[in-house]
Amino acid sequence: MTSLDKPTDQRGQGAGGDAEARSATEAALFEAFGGVRGMVETTVPGLVFVAIYTVKRDIHIAAIAALGLSVALGIARLVGKDTLKHAFSGVFGVAFGAVFAMMSGDAKNFYLPGMLYSLGLAVAYIVTSLFGYPLLGLILGPVFKENLSWRTRNPGRKAAYTKASWAWGLILLAKSAILFPLYWWGDATQLGWVKVALGIPPMLLSVYLTWIFLAKAPPPIDVFAEMEAAEAAEREKAAADKAADKAADVAKVAEPLLAEWADRAVDEAGATADRAAPPRH
């Protein structure tokens, strides 16, 4: 089992290992970010809102339509036995935006919660990278079954997570730099259409860069497999110790019996010899 304090060199895996690592990376990214479907589901409610508001100029109708669509998409996820995270992550964001817009009477506020979330996420990506705990590693570590082993035992993956987190942070900051001026000085339709346009492309770019960085990094250390192997080794050792103790107990019981049997055998042999010896005259 690899030491918890020493980096693990996992280079030289060969073409098969590289292909397997790339496939695992793709699957983990799709799991973590909901795949293309998740990207579409986070964009379509906003598209519905801005389209209806552009035509009707009615915040309530546009907000209720967007929220209803988001709930329908979440229910479809549940019917398809998808995870609750993917089913309702978009619903809450749309619900906050819809309620905020209707309460304030300003259609631009439909997008404000999502914009604040993106800005906060950008800051989190950058700050955690500066402190050596890149957020993407914290998110994807459990997905790859490596937990935090990448911090101390796999420096190549730590570097990859850091680069990817910086990419996410800078891309989201650039997105915020475009949207917030529109929120302050533009109108609701301008903000809405630009936000819809900036929904999927930045996400795709971020996921693509993450895939590039992680695909080139050393494969993850499966700490769960290591723990299972350690537990199996401990069970084998315990079974071996139990068998040795049992053998020692048997030996303790058998030793005096064997000694007694040997003494009897010697006595019987002596008696037989005495009977067989010719009488003395």
Automatic annotation (TrEMBL):
The chain crosses the membrane at residues 59-80, 87-104, 116-144, 165-186, 192-214. InterPro entries: UCP010219. This is Membrane protein. Pfam families: DUF3159 (PF11361). The keyword Membrane applies. It comes from Streptomyces eurocidicus (Streptoverticillium eurocidicus). Residues 1-20 are annotated as: Disordered. Keywords: Membrane, Transmembrane, Transmembrane helix. The keyword Transmembrane applies.
